[in-house]
Amino acid sequence: MSRILPADGVEFGVTVPVLVIGGGAAGMVAALAAHERGAGVLVLERDALPQGSTALSAGLIPAPGTRWQRDAGIEDSPERFAADIVAKAKGEPDPAAVARVTQAVGPALEWLADRYGLPFSVVDNFSYPGHGARRMHGLPSRSGAELIDRLRGAVEESGIDVLCEAHVTALYADGPLVRGVEITRPDGSVEPVGCAALVLACNGYGGNRALVERHVPELADALYFGHPGNQGDALLWGEALGAATRHLSGHQGHGSVAHPAGILVTWATITEGGVQVNTGGRRFSNEAQGYSEQAALVLRQPDGIAWTVFDERIAAIARQFEDFRQAEAMGAVLTADTPAELARQMRIDADALAATLADTDRLKTEGGSDGFGRSFAGSAPLAPPYRAVRVTGALFHTQGGLVVDDDARVLDGSGAPLPNLYAAGGAACGVSGSKASGYLSGNGLLTAVALGRIAGSAAASAAREETSR
User: 59 and 102 share a domain?
Assistant: First the structure.
């Protein structure tokens, strides 16, 4: 249980200007930003190696108006990106919060590239649902593991201290003012560490079954594909300190996790013209709406299982992602020259699958829409060799959280900032609204990178003011 302890009488053996809880993308970016502002920084990571949910993701960050987009001839702007976010979430997100991150993320990526050598490029050969421009940026392997490795390397090269196997189990506070944290080590020993400013970058509550049951009951029994350390500590600490929260039911699901391999299968398999069928060989939804809301739809199918069906042309696009290459190497991607042979390998009704594929191919040829509302205009019919992956739905991470202002300061119930507390990434309320369908691809890393940089910079300034008093 996350605790708030009185700071009175506590002797901190070590006190740092800026303390960051969490060594994922949000925490690493916050640490770099605070260090660049001249603050001493310590990152606390509960695991033996900083990875977090970032390492489990595809590592793609949506950003508008970047030089990589311009080089690819892609026209985009923060305003256009903001409109896409608001449209996907049906107007729920706070416009100020949306503007905050859409304006900050592009400069943040260029800063990471120029200052720390992260070799970003834009994904320019397919589009994600809801995005009006191709604005996903990633590293060469298109993997979250590479993203966190590069960020960790940048932090280490900058001389920023990262203390691993340091589980923060309590905050020390005088009222709403945080004075430090309690660290519990693997051997059970406890150590207090003081700070002038604290950045919560320890994500949301996806790994806390009780909180998921309370806020996202429809995914209470779903596969959790996030980091197990996401126990809702930031949310619980914030609430105990009087922080405001918003959209706690918001989350990112995913309807395409290879089962039982447990590997994310890129949604390009759908956006480029693939479909999902259940174990009866029939389609059951408009897959093109988005992979987040598809998670619950897949879980409603018999045994919580679906099959993503596509072809070699689409597989060639998907192979730019390391996860997909791993799925192929593990044998999770079936291949066949005919629908009948594919159905045999899938162990489903061959006539049903053939009829489903014939119907979607007809719609593609005619440029029509199906009964679920999916338009197949401009989509090429599937052609042999065919591909299929057995998938299930999963919860990736939560999107609701602590309400923050333009400096990523955590706000209380009246809208006033708490004295020295900041939040980024999944610890802060995101821009996806209260439903899975509000999640626009990349919203998680969007707030990790954009708010991480904002929080680190602001925390450094606050710590400087505090120590100069």
Answer: yes
